[in-house]
Write a structure and sequence with these properties.
Elements (H helix, E strand, L loop, with lengths): L12 E5 L7 E7 L2 E10 L15 E8 L17 H15 L11 E10 L4 H23 L11 E9 L2 E4 L3 H6 L2 E8 L4 E8 L6 H26 L1
Parallel strand pairs: 4-5
Antiparallel strand pairs: 1-2, 2-3, 3-5, 6-7, 6-8, 8-9
Helix pairs in contact: 1-2
Length: 236
């Protein structure tokens, strides 16, 4: 049983946009004891697989990394290639942000989202998605002010949250220790107006009834609305 908050209560979330002075957009997210930095880089070229293909807009891709001492024990740097987990998470972040970004406004440009976990205590991919969205929000503000683009490129607000079942009880926003105990563990990605972008996960030890699975997703979407209500004033 949780002693610091209710089963559906979120950890404290703080967002600091513009944390990196050099990137086109950046944001530091402190989500409980999980701290994540996201930066946006805009390159004036498309990736090789899209060049000369009649692509009408731009492209967005994401990279994700755990810093060596972001975890209880030192994590080795992935110097030669990304692990399967890292590839899974960075693809999730890329898909999530592409789903709410109008890339036709970035013709022949590539937006690179770098998400680095400074400290991990569960929910790093969810914090990474929120940090990526906040960084893109700041970049969009600056691009509009500079006259680089003349339309707001974000079509929806975006966030993500974990939802799980521990000893038959439903929990929202699992920390590291709770994640280890979860019989069911989902990551729900959604918009501020209640739409589902993606759901990852399922039963860790046992099958989950379809009705309970849907209820978990619904609880996650409700939590996402609360997350965005919290961070909206912090985005500027």
């Amino acid at each position: 049983m949780r002693t610091d908050r209710q089963p559906t209560q979120l950890r404290t979330i703080e967002v600091t946009p513009g944390y990196n002075r050099y990137a086109e957009g950046s944001a530091l997210v402190k989500w409980g004891n999980t701290h994540v930095l996201a930066t946006i880089t805009i390159e004036n070229r498309l990736p090789p697989h899209l060049r000369g293909q009649g692509h009408k807009g731009g492209w967005l891709t994401a990279e994700y990394a755990l810093l060596p001492r972001s975890t209880h024990e030192r994590t080795q740097r992935e110097r030669l290639y990304a692990s399967g987990r890292t590839q899974e998470i960075q693809r999730l972040i890329g898909r999530a942000l592409r789903s709410v970004t109008d890339l036709t406004l970035f013709k022949n440009k590539t937006l690179i989202v770098d998400v680095d976990v400074l400290q991990a205590d569960g929910g790093t991919r969810c914090a990474g998605i929120l940090a990526a969205y906040a960084a893109m929000h700041q970049a969009s503000n600056d691009l509009i002010r500079a006259g680089t683009i003349d339309e707001w490129p974000l079509t929806h607000e975006l966030a993500a949250v974990s939802a799980g079942v521990i000893e038959g009880n439903r929990y929202i926003d699992l920390d590291y220790n709770e994640d280890l105990q979860a019989e069911v563990d989902l990551n729900v990605v959604g918009t501020g107006d209640g739409q589902v972008v993606e759901v990852q996960g399922g039963g860790e030890e046992i099958p989950i009834p379809a009705e309970e699975y849907v209820q978990l997703i619904a609880s996650g979407i409700t939590a996402i609305e609360h997350i965005l209500e919290t961070v909206r004033p912090q985005l500027g």
